[in-house]
Structure formats: structure tokens, C-alpha cells
Amino acid sequence: MPDEISFNDLIASSIHDMKNSLNVQVSALEKIAVQCRDRGDAPMYDELGRVIYQSSRMSLNLVELLSLYKLGKAIYPVDMDEYAVSDVIDEALMQSRFMMEFKGITVTTDCTPDCYWYMDRDLVKGVLVNALNNAYHYTADAIHLSARLHNRWLELRVEDNGPGYPDHMLETGILGSERTVNFATGSTGLGFYFSAQVAQLHKNGKKRGTLSIENGGTLGGGCFLLMLP
Amino acid sequence: MTLSLRQANILIIDDFQGMRTMLREFLKSMGVTAIDTASNGKDALHQLSITRFDIVICDYNLGPGANGQQVLEEAKIKNYVGVSTVWVMVTAEKTPEMVMGAAEVRPDDYLLKPINQSLLEARLEKLIARKQSLAPIEASVKALNYAEAIAQCDHQLKAKAINPQEILRVKSDLLLAMGDYVGATALFESVLATRDVPWALTGMGKVYFHDKKYAEAKEVFQRVLRENEVYMEASDWLAKTCAIMGQHEEAQKVLLDAVKLSPNSPTRQKFLGDTAYKNGSLEVAQAAFEKTIRIGEFSPHKTPAAYTALAKVFSDQGSPIDALKTLQQSKKEFRYNTEAAIQTAAAEGVVYQKLGQADKAEAAMQEAERLIEKAAGKLGAEVAIDVADSLFKLGRKEKASGLLQEVVRNNHENAELSKSIEALFEDHGMEAEGQALIAESRGEVVTINNQGVTLAKHGDLLGGANLLRTAAEKLPHNEVILINLCGLLIGMLSKEGKSHQVASEVRELLDRVRQINPANKNYHIYTAALNRIMNGPGG
């Protein structure tokens, strides 16, 4: 008798498949958008930009869902190793470059090349891309991504110059806000939940990674803060 | 020489035309001109055999036939890719096997799909830089000059290398390989002072294992696995530790868990099969050996031992026809391999005996024994033990004991081998004989060795050397005797002046030591000493 396939596994493999299709779609759309821009078709370019943003969001959500599913079943191959933090930041930026260019957002970074830290590269990159996506949504026109070592912790900050997080979110904290599912704004809390799980997964002795939000920072808007021990 | 990405000679291996075209376009846009493609493992290996590529971009999933990992392993073993080749594995999702420490041979990096041009370019640039920092170290390792490799690691660490952890890890492997357990311990402890890094913890476990502190080793490996379930290296060592502690049931459980996470290592599957067979779990053993053969097919780990082991399982299960079929298969697969022919013939003898065909059993055994004579002294220890098992089963106790005696004499300091030989005697109800044989054979060698060394210490270098010379003739594969003889001869050279005859004897001995164990600590020291004396003044 063949092994029974559980509904969860079916969902997982479907998500995997959807994610792949979406990625093909996004890269094709990006190509078309560039062609539009080059021949001066601004309205079409704008339209495509919005479609690409939505598709990227969807793709990101699927990746997060899949990772969470695997983490939940303890089948995610957590791959802790030492990486140059600047490389991880660069790769996260590459993934959102088109969108940032589209909306004319200036992205600056601050990370020394000799900053190394121990992490699962793909998961942390996912958290950064998610934070960049959030910042993209709320910023006026600038995002600052920085990393530094502080008291044997790695501090990763994604800051913007938008209006900042609303008071109720700052009060309840990042995981409190996950409960405020709002389909109108597209806020399901998935991104924060995923990021918090990734933070938790990073351990050193008794210390565990944390995730927090605040307002202010170098750009005066919202700050997303991931601390890894 | 520094290589730039644009000058690189690149091979793309992917079964999908679309992917090959996309990757080629990406590379062309980066300014790369030397690009070749292959659509399957066989084609890839053919191209790798005729062209030296700087970079290989290989999809993990290549459809039917070998997967990317197997292509990489074969290319490494056959030396188609050098130490400076960058190998990037492209994959749709990470599996436990791709995680740090899971596979013996790893690509330089994994790239998760989807791939875009800027990501690929950034990774390739980084990998080229990393390769260049590792190149001198790897070249020394390849030349078996471990001491020099360690010196290069230290140099890089001082010069703030771009990948300090990786270099520390390489250094720790070198220290272990050279038998510098004190140095390795210090390195592991310094890394562990800031963080429980699994490779360093596992390394501590290896040191405990070497010091025969098995309980401590076990505890450490378990601790690694509690934190990192997929850390295969720790789980392999845990199984190995359980086995040497005689806890075979537990070893089997550990291995079963490991193959669930990472089923495609032939060595692990073979270990599981052997352990399960020991425990009498014939079904588990059968499945494991079948899997060993299946995944070994395209792998350099392909070994006749898996076939004879599977044949034994079939024979024990009362399926002699399947057993003979398996051995027939082995003969076909390893046509030109004498060791394989010996193993297969001996196993055939056992099967025929079970079938009640005494004449055929006798013929097979005679063939095995004829080949053993022919291969005199050149039989690998594992093969000898396997063949001895067959000989015991057919009542040829003396022949079996003789073979095992050879193994002990040539490896008198190898605790693991002694353990498996002891277990073999036990299996055949000859526990006492086994222990006596091991103790006696080991004693003989230890005595001769000690006598030789004592004579030398009292100033009679020639007397000591002559004693060890006689011993080395009888025990051409005993690493300890050979290296000690080198030591005495070098002592003679430095005391009595240059002699080209003695020097060439030492060179030959050193060469033999290197073949037995390239990591022999004294090999490097004596090689340097010999060169110093022979290139120095006088004579």
C-alpha cells in the first residue's frame, strides 16, 4: 500500500510548486517592465510595477509558509554557519532591487566587510527581505539597512523615513500585532511571525535571538530590529 | 595567479535546456566567454575528464542516472576537478544532506532557485575569492604536507582571512589527521569558549574517541545531535562510538534515524547493514545493503563488500538463489578487482555449502584460497576479515586464523580492527582463541619493536635496525615498525654520516608508510630530517 499523503504534505508540495511558478512569472514580468521603461511606456511600467510588487509579496509569503511548515515539522535543515553579514545584506537587497528602483527609494547600508556572524543564511535573508518589503510599503523614500556587533550580539536594523509604527503596535510588541489580521491592508502577521520564529531559532548557550520594533532611528521612521546571539 | 570571473572556464550541468540557456545567458552578460554545457552526469564527467574547468554550476537534480552530488563525488575522486575548482550546486530546496557536515564531499556552495543574474554573479565572485585564499592550503594538503598546510592556515588567520571559521575548521581536521590531539583540543576549546559550534563539539568528541573515553565521546555526540538533528557527522560518530562500546542495538537505532534524514550515503547504509546483520535484523540489513548497492552504482564508494554482505543476508534468510544472483552481479561489476574476486568466491563457497553442494563449495573455496596466495599480504584489512568470516563458516579455521593474524600483526595498534576481529571469533564460538590470537600476535610485534628501540637507546643503532629490518620483512604493512625503523636509520645517518644506500632505504620505507597512512605524524618529521641530512655538509 502506498504511503498515505497527508493534507498538510499536499499543501506543502503545492506551495512549493506555486512558489516556483510565481518566481518564473516575476522574472518574466521584470523583463517586460524593463522593456516598457526603455521604450518610454510609463503607464504600463507603473502598472507592471504594482503587479510585480504584489507577486513578490505573494512569493515571499509562500516561502515563509513553506519554511514555517518545515520548521514546525522539524524537517527544515537549519544550516548554521559563519557568514560575512555584508554578503547576506547584499543578497537581500538584490532580491528587492527592482521594487526599490521602481518606487525611487534610496537604500543605504552600513556594515563593515569584516563583520562575521553565525546564522542560517537563507532564513536570515528571508527576514531581511520581509523587513525591506514592509519598509517599502511605509517609507517615504529612504531605507537604511545596518549591522553591527554589540556585546556579543549581532544587531540588524532596517529603518525607514515613513510615519513609523502606530502606538498600539509599539505597546503590544511585535508578536502582539500578529493577532491584528487585517485583510484590507494585507497584514496577516505572517511576516512578523516568520521573523520571530527565525530569531528564536538562533541560539547561543542560553541566549536566543529576538525581534523588536521601534520608532526613530537614523531616518526617524519605523525600525525593525533583529538581534542574533 | 588570480583568476577573474570573466576569464573563467565554466561548465553548466543541467538536464533542462531552458535552465542551461538561462545560465549561459547570465554568464555571457557577465562577460564570460568560455562556457560549456552538459545535460546529464555521464556527459558532464566526460567533459570534466578532458577539460579543466575553473567553475562548475551543477543542478542537483539531473533526472535519471547520477545526481549532482554523485557527479561531484566521482569528479573529485577521479581528480577531474582540482582543489581550485569552484563547484556550485543549484537546487530547488535544501535537504538535510546539503547542510553543513552532512556529506563527506561538499560543493563550495549551494544556490537556491530561483536564481537571478546579480545573485549568481555576486556568489561566484565571492567563491573565487574564497578559493584563492584556500588554494595554497589545499595544495599542501594534496601534497600530503600537513605541517606546511597548518603553517599556511596560521598565516591566513593572522592576516585576517575572509573566512576565519572555515580555516580554523580545516586546521582542526589537519591536526586530527596528523594525530596532534593536544593541539586539536586547544583549538576546539577556544572556539567553544564563545559558542557551541557543532563542528568543534564534534571534534572534541573525536578526541575523546581517540583517547578511548567512549562514554564522554558518546555524551558529546548526543549533545551535538540534540541541538542539530541533521548534523550527520555527529550521528555517524555516535553510531561508531556505540558500536565500539558493544551497544549495537543503539548503534542501529542511531543509523536508522540518520538514513531517514540522509539516505544517500553508501558508507552509512553499509554501516547500518553491517550493524543490523550483527543484531540479527535481517530485513533491515537486506534493505540497507540493497540501498548501498543502488546508490553506490554511480558513486566512487562502490564496493564489493556490499554485494557479499547482501548475499550473506539472503543465504541466512534461506534464499540461496538470490544470494548466488547477487554474487554473480558482483563478479560482473568488479571484473578486474582481485580483492572482489576473493570476497565473492569465499561468499559463494558459503552459499553452496548451505545448499548442500559440497563440491561446488570446495571449488569456490579453492579458487578463493588460490587468489589469496596470489595477493599475498596485499589484502586490505576489511576484505581479509570478510573472507575470514566465510572461511570460518566453511570450517577452514586455520586459514581464517592465519588471515586474521596477518591483519593484527600489520595493524597491532588499531583498536577498532582488533575489536571487529574479536567479534568475528566470538560469532563463531571461538572467543578465547580469538583473544589469545590477538594478544599473541600483538605481543610478538610489540616485543620486537621494543627490543629494537631499546637496543638503539643503548647505542646499538645497527643492532636495533637489523631487528626491525627482519620484522619489517615479515610485516610489510606495519606502520609502527616501518616508521620506527626509519627513525633508527635516520639516527644512524646523522651519527655515522651520509650513506646513499641507507638514505634510499629510508626513502622506500617512508613511501610505504605514506601509502599506509598519509597522515603519519613522524612521516613528515622524518622526511624533513632525511632531506636535511642528505643536503647538509659532509659525506
Structure, described:
The complex is a heterodimer of chains A (229) and B (539). In chain A, a hairpin with a 2-residue loop joins strand 4 and strand 5. In chain A, helix 1 packs antiparallel against helix 2 and helix 3 packs parallel to helix 4. Chain A is built from 6 helices and 9 strands, in the order H-H-E-H-E-E-H-E-E-H-H-E-E-E-E. The radius of gyration of chain A is 18 Å and the shape is globular. Chain B is mainly alpha-helical. Chain B has 25 helices and 5 strands. Chain B has a 5-stranded parallel β-sheet, with helices on both faces. In chain B, helix 3 links the parallel strand 3 and strand 4. Chain B is globular and about 70 Å long. Chain B starts with 8 loop residues before the first strand and ends with a helix. The interface between A and B is medium-sized, with 28 and 32 residues.
Q: What brief labels describe this structure?
A:
heterodimer, A: alpha+beta, five-stranded mixed sheet, 6 helices, 9 strands, B: 539 residues, mainly alpha, Serine Threonine Protein Phosphatase 5, Tetratricopeptide repeat, five-stranded parallel sheet, 25 helices
- Spatial ordering of strands, largest sheet of chain A: 2-4-5-9-8
- CATH class wording of the domain at 5-132 in chain B: Alpha Beta
Fraction of residues in β-strands of chain B: under 5%
Helix proportion of chain A: 40-55%
| Poorly predicted residue ranges of chain A | none
Mean pLDDT reading of chain B: 89
Structural class of chain A: alpha+beta
Instruction: Round the Cα radius of gyration of chain B to an integer and report it.
Output: 26 Å
Quaternary status: heterodimer
Name the helix and strand elements of chain B from N-terminus to C-terminus, one letter apiece: EHEHEHEEHHHHHHHHHHHHHHHHHHHHHH
Label the structural class of chain B: mainly alpha
Largest sheet of chain B: 5 strands, parallel
- Outline of chain A, from the CA principal axes? globular
Helix content of chain B: 55-70%
Uncertain segments of chain B are: none
